[in-house]
Design goal:
mainly alpha; 2 domains; flat; 100 residues
Length: 100
């Protein structure tokens, strides 16, 4: 099997795995139960899932590069902003929110 054929087969397997993860989480009875409780409390709920698998051949990347490919950042590197709506939603679930 040529390299590009092998790479395409790996890519296809990865896409299948990502889709399988999304479906497994989305169809989880526990997740469905939590969503139903939110609806019962008067909320409209939309669950959007996207699984992304980062991969490379063994030995091609060092640990830092693997973290970068996987999207794992050090706390100092994280650029996260929470909107007013995010804070309101979390408070409604009795989740404490630090004010900026």
């Amino acid at each position: 099997m040529r390299d590009h054929e092998c790479d395409e087969k790996v890519n296809q397997t990865v896409r299948h795995l990502e889709k399988s993860i999304e479906q497994a989480i989305g169809r989880s009875p526990h997740v469905e139960e939590c969503l139903a409780r939110l609806r019962e409390q008067g909320y409209e709920v939309s669950l959007v899932l996207q699984a992304t698998l980062a991969y490379a051949r063994l030995g091609e990347l060092d640990e830092k590069e693997v973290d970068e490919v996987a999207g794992v950042l050090e706390d100092d590197d994280a650029d996260f902003r929470m909107s007013t709506l995010d804070r309101k939603f979390l408070r409604s679930l009795k989740i404490a929110v630090d004010e900026e």
